[in-house]
Write a structure and sequence with these properties.
single chain, 197 residues, alpha+beta, Heat Shock Protein 90, 2 domains, five-stranded mixed beta sheet, two-stranded antiparallel ribbon, 5 helices, 7 strands, globular
Length: 197
């Protein structure tokens, strides 16, 4: 077992164990809505919104950082649903061009790339996604952030901050799949593509 496999298994365990109590909180809040005397006010709305956000993030992070098996398919509609709470309008507009289903390892590579794009687009923007190509037009164009160096180049293999781990994992997944990532900065956009080595 590689260090990457071990980290994926740890993340899977954490997300799995978190989703159950978060789901229980969510169910309890739904039951409270049946009683109008308890389910009202800004406090209740805040708790409900936070519970919904926590559940969506745990499910998204289980796909992004959890253990995946080759040959297990994920429906594209399910992938879009997992990403929607984190990449929402007006900050992000995500345009998908995917087959009906993807291998879960391929879906994992795409959501890790999305997390990398989030770092590149702090003010948001438009994103187009296909299985081998992602393109983004940021609200505020900027130079390529240095964290892309973890995907290839001088930073590859060096220690990184927890907030940038998606770049390291993206590099390991693309390498394991026999793919080569290529990043291109255009005048008003940037593109990430994956091609066979």
């Amino acid at each position: 077992m590689t260090d990457t496999d071990l980290s994926f298994l740890i993340a899977s365990r954490i997300c799995h164990d978190l989703i159950n109590p978060i789901g229980a909180i969510h169910n309890g809040l739904e039951l409270m809505t049946l009683s109008q005397s308890t389910a009202q006010g800004i406090e209740f709305d805040l708790v409900q919104a936070s519970a919904n956000d926590a559940r969506a993030r745990a499910e998204f992070f289980r796909l992004a950082f959890g253990s995946q098996k080759h040959g297990v398919l994920l429906q594209s509609d399910a992938l879009k649903k997992l990403c929607a709470p984190l990449f929402t309008q007006p900050r992000y507009t995500v345009n998908w061009s995917l087959p009906a289903a993807l291998d879960r390892t391929e879906a994992q590579r795409l959501v890790l790339a999305l997390l990398c794009f989030e770092k590149q687009l702090p003010q948001g923007g438009q994103i187009w996604i296909s299985p081998t190509h992602l393109r983004a037009v940021p609200v505020a164009p900027r130079a390529i952030v240095e964290q892309w160096g973890y995907v290839w180049g001088p930073h590859a293999g060096k220690s990184t901050a927890a907030s940038d781990i998606q770049f390291v994992l993206l590099q390991r997944l693309t390498q394991a799949a026999g793919l080569r990532p290529e990043l291109r900065l255009n005048e008003d956009s940037f593109e990430l593509s994956f091609s066979r080595v």
